[in-house]
Amino acid sequence: MKHPFFNNNGPFKLIDLLKDFKLKITENLDNDLVTDIKDLQNSDKNHLTFFHSKRYYLQASKTKASYCLTFENLKNYLPKNCKPICVENVLSVISQITSKFYPDAINDDFDNTVKKIEEINFHNSIKYGHNVLVGENVQIENNCLIGHNTIIEKNVTIGSNCSIGSNVIIRNTIIKNNVRILDGCIIGKKGFGFFPHRKKNIRYPHIGIVFIDDNSEIGCGATIDRGSMSNTIIGKNTYLDNQIHVAHNNIIGDNCIIAGQVGIAGSSVLGNNVMIGGQAGISGHLKIGNNVQIGGGSGVIKDIPDNSKVMGYPSKNFRKFLKDNK
Asked: Which 3 state secondary structure label does DSSP give 97?
């Protein structure tokens, strides 16, 4: 399937992708072709993936990828259909290879295809303010409102009955129906992903997208980063307050309510019906269950099971928090 926002420069011979890393290859890979690079869950035959933490052993054991960059001590978790390629630094190598497949995903330069919305012939009812700019191949369905000074960059899709505020920038994003994006939001820019290397930082290409499902609302000044390799997803009927940051690869479930100034670090998964109070922080690579309530100002640094109510830093059971802070 063609990527909706970035050009895939593949396929590549696997041996050519690996030659710059001076690896000891134990199998004959001369004729092996790699058509794309994906995460463990979304990989398919002839894809290259990566497995860098035992935390993801279940996903690794079920991957459909043909090849996987990993560590020596993790390779036995992979299924027989997936050839392990052991390296010393999985994330650094996968970053450099991803750059070869998707070089235009490294930088976030402005879209030079944009035109004034008056110059584009949309065959449906769209109301818009002054100085609205729209890129190539943008799809906007019926009965949408777009505020002043907003930029919608190339290939973005917006469903029916959506309201996009003023001073909004949207790129690398698919928005479903009845969604409200309030003023000043930035959605779909690259996440905060890089590797310190000697005297410079190496940027990781972010090839994921942002997906916002039906009936959701994104508050003023919110920032939602696109995924690094998987996607950043906002579920149905989920409401984000003002000044919220959702980092790359986060998945937020349906019917969630998140208050102002909450920050969610990358690659965390929030279940359905989650409620988070203002100024709480969620660390990365965590799983927050269904029906969880997190008190304002809390710091979440470990997984939270379904139907829990927590507060404090580090977050703890709400009753224990009250007892400890009498």
From this structure: helix
Please check whether residue 278 lies inside any domain of the structure.
yes
- Which is higher by pLDDT, 311 or 28? 311
Q: Read off the CATH number of the domain in which 283 is found.
A: 2.160.10.10
pLDDT reported for residue 1: 67
Q: Which of 81, 105, 129 is the last residue of a domain?
A: 105
The reply to whether 101 and 222 lie within a common domain is no
Are residues 77 and 187 both part of a single domain?
A: no
The answer to whether 209 and 231 have CB atoms below 8 angstroms apart is yes
Reference 56, options 287, 251, 216; nearest CA is: 287
Q: Which domain holds residue 76?
A: 12-105
Arithmetic mean of pLDDT, 83-112 = 91
Q: Which of 54, 80, 105 finishes a domain?
A: 105
Relative to beta strand 275-276, strand 293-294 is parallel
Give the dihedral sign, CA 4/6/11/13: negative
Q: Does the residue 149 lie in any domain?
A: no
Looking at residue 285, its pLDDT comes to 94
Q: In which region does residue 75 sit, left (phi positive, over 0), alpha (psi from -120 to 50) or beta (all else)?
A: alpha
pLDDT tens for residues 168-190?
A: 999 999 999 999 999 999 999 99
Is residue 7 a part of any domain in this protein?
A: no
Angle of CA points 137, 234, 174, to nearest 5°: 5
pLDDT of residue 254: 98
Active-site positions? 248
Of 37-41, 104-108, 122-126, 254-258, minimum mean pLDDT range: 122-126
